[in-house]
Every structure is written in C-alpha cells, then in structure tokens.
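Box S2. Input/output pair 1.
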Amino acid sequence: MCYETLSKSETQTLISKVNHQKMARHRNIVRCYDCIVDSANTKIYVVMEECTGDNLAGLIASASRERRHLDEKFILQVIAQLTSALKTFYRKSNGKPIFHHNLKAGNVFLDSERNVKLGKPSYTTTNQMSFDNKCDIWSLGCLLYELCTLCRYVPSSEQKVLAEKIPARTLIKIPGQYSKELSMLLNNMLNLTDDLRPSMKSILQSNLLAEVVEEEAKKAQGRSELAKRNKMIRSARKNKENLTPGDPQLVMLDNIARRPRTDSQHTSQVDKDRHVRQLRI
C-alpha cells in the first residue's frame, strides 16, 4: 500500500490498524505476520497468511450456477465463526476500538474443512471508520442474505439510498426451506436503526446458533489439547537422552513410534520414496 498521499497522522493510523491486525489471533481470521515500512518508496507491505482455498463469493457463484441452495447448518456455521472472529478483532488498540469494515463474500476464505477465515480489514483512514460495530452487523446481515438467496441484498452502501429503497419495517424474505429463526435473525441484522441490531454476544448466545457454537467450542478444545500434546512430544524428543527408562514422556514417544500407519500414510511414504529414487537417478 502506498501512503504517499496520506498525512503523517493518517499514516500512523494505517500502521496502527495493521499492527492491530497482527494482534488479532483467531482460528477464523487470516493471520497477519509482519508489517514492513519502505520509507524510501512510501510503501507499506503487509505479510499475510496464504489462502489457497476458495472464498464465499466463489462458493455462492458455484451454487447459483448449479441452482442449489446452501445447507442451513453450513450457513449457521459461517455466521457463528465470523461473529466469533469479529469479537476478537474488536479489542481496543491504544484505548480506541478498531472495527473491520471489510466484511464481504470475496474477503471470507474457506479452508479444506469449509471453515471460514476472515480476510484483511479496511485500511481506509477517512472519517467513515468512526462508525461503531453495528456497521459490521449490517454487513454480516448482507452476507447472510447472500448465502440464503445467492444474490446480493443491495447494490449501495449509502444509508440514505438504503432508506429510500427499503421502507421501514419491510420484512426481508428468504427461501422457504430456511427456518423462521434464521429469517428473524436476518431481519434483525438488517434493521435500518443501528441500535436495534443485535450485538455479537446476543448472536452467539441465541438458540439458533446454540448447537453450532457448542460444536465450535469442542473443536477449539480439541485443537488446544492437540497443541499441548505436540508441544510435549517436541519437548520429549529434545530431552530424550535425559529421560529415565519408564518416564511417561519416553513411553509416549515409544507408543508413537509403534503406532501402525494408515493406508494413506503408507501410500504417501511409498510415493515419497519413489520420488527420492527418481531424483537420485
């Protein structure tokens, strides 16, 4: 990003937002690793996690071409994961809240298990960034509508234009295959009055998302336990020579070494060995 046309204060705000993103550690947020300032060329380089999978925009386009609707449970999973990610992103930086303001289908990526990863926030430094987090709730509602109907909600983001196009208390309709609770959540998110939109906390605590949120908590616990186990294994391997016979960590390493490989692991190893032989030839 070039900051040549920005003032000194705007440049500092931009760097502050990038640094804030580095601190936002969450399984459903694209990781920001580093920020490099090139003063000579007035450019800032942001080093981010590579996303090799598709994004929601591609998934929606594919479903539209095939004329099939997305499963409600998947949609609820997307909303739960994005809401949780936004809550993490909203931590205050230097006493000031920083919001995402770039929530759209093309900026939400999918991993191999169809979990979402929220992409980079808006780095705009204009006054529009003074809006509160209810703006992101609106964007989340627009994304929810797009997931249900496979088309965008409104072409404009101007509040005045929206008010003219959408009269107050207009019921937003989605395909009948989706539950009334999902329709109600959507209508609450897209309320033209900011204060009447639900909070992140109330969305995650709703009965509609209860089952998905519980599953996400179990997955998070499993990842945490796996990370602890891997840490123990690395530590045990490092200190293997200093461990006494019968030590629990040494027993754990022996069990791992004796564990039978699956067919897929065996096939992978065979392919790897064949590749090495070819390189030697």
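Box S3. Input/output pair 2.
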Amino acid sequence: MCGSRERDAPGRYDEDVSFVNPVVKYLLFVFNFLFWLIATAMMAIGVYARVAKHAETALACLAVDPAMMLLVVGVVMFVVTFCGCVGSLRENICLLQFFCITLTVIFLLQLAAGVLGFIFSDKARDKVTQMVNNAIEHYRDDIDLQNLIDFGQKEFGCCGAVTYTDWSNNMYFNCTNNNPSRERCSVPFSCCIITKDKVEVLNTMCGQGMQMVKYMEAGNVIHTNGCIDKVVDWIYTNLFLLGGIALGLAIPQLVGILLSQILISQIKDQIELQNYNLKHRADPWR
C-alpha cells in the first residue's frame, strides 16, 4: 500500500487506538531534519566553491573536484532526508520506503568500498600514488592545491609521493639540465625539517637543490620519505580511531533504517485497523 494514513482512511472509528508511536515518528523527523540542514549547508558550500573556483585544470588531478563532490553528496542527502522528513510527518509509506531503501543502498556501497579497498590495497595504493604525483605536477597551478600539499607534507613529515625526487614531476622543480627555473632540482619548503629551536630568521630556501644531494645528506635537511608510506603507517597506527569514525558514520544510517522500518510497520498496522473499521462501520454488534 502506498500513501499516507490520512488519505487511505478518511474516517477514524477507534480514535483512542493508534499503532503509530509518536516518539518514533517525531524522533525520525528530527533525525532527518538535522541531516537536511547539514545537506543544505553542504550544497551552499559546494555551489559557492564551484562558482568561486576557476583553476579546474589543477583540481582535476584530484580525480574528483572537491566542490563537485561536496555538491553531489549534499544533493543526495537533501533529497533522501527531505523524503524522510515528509514521510515521517505525513506517515507516507512510499516516501519512508524510498528513504529506507536509499539509505540501505548507500550503507552497503560504503561497506563494499571499504572491503574492496582492503582486499585490493595494492591497486588502491598505486592509484593514490598516481593521484599524488598528478597533484605534484599541478602544484603551482592552484593556491588551494598548493596549500593542501604543503599541509600534508608538514603534518606527516614527508616529501613527494614515494620519495622526495618525485618533485621532478613538477615543471618548476624538474631536475633536467634544460630547466630554466630557479627552483630547478629543489623541493618545496614544506619538505624541510623544521627544528623547534627558536630562530630569528627562518630559511625558506632550505629545499634549494636538494634533489641533487645524496639521500643520506638530504635527510639532514628535508624529509626524504614519501607521503604514501607515512599515511599508510599513520592508518595502521590509528586503526581504532578510524574504526571509531567509521562506526560513527554508520550508526546514524543504521538508526535511520531501523526507525523508518518500525514506523512503516506501525503505519501498516494502523491502516489495517482503519480498513477493518471502515468495513464494519455498519455492524450493529461492533
């Protein structure tokens, strides 16, 4: 049966009997309304970033434009949570079923992506390495991309994708003899090892010519290990934290699925009762 309880049964004969629990109904509404507000904010940020961002060629190296990804996720969340809000308030089985099925599909896709990423970790590693090298290639093309790479190298204490010589993929840092750039054979400042000692003047040119220096000597000035290995080590070190984050993302979805299924079952029971009363409204023994 598809439709709201009000439209399916205009007449109510047992007003004191209701299978629909108002706690479940309004809890599901509040749950969806909160995520609907989050989805609206994500859409607004995505649209603003998409309109304001002009260096799309540079961002193409990230495989997915972050602004477009944020916009798509926001639109999907907006539609799903809107159906959940209206479906719970109107007790509409169609909208609630759409909400429940869509949420279940999204949860299963996330689970499948995690399992496939674990099984095919080597291929995923190669893909991420390629993506990081592409980002290095476009390092100077976009200030946001540059800040993102610098932040990652400073945070993880790394340089390049696999090793610091990966910066030769960038036309400015390329180490070929015919490169006229003043940054030839260098690495960005974010690769440098910054000591905690207080200094009056910070040497921002510490990465100058480091690609021509031997590995052991370069290690005294810059981080020589690539960011891929550093990130993998960080993941293995923080498995419990990542598991907690994954569980935190999964719990709201499971709660939404459970509440919608309970409410759908209650609405169906209520409709059956009203249809029974409708058929026996002329029964004198009622």
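Caption for Box S3: The chain has a mean pLDDT of 83. The radius of gyration is 28 Å.
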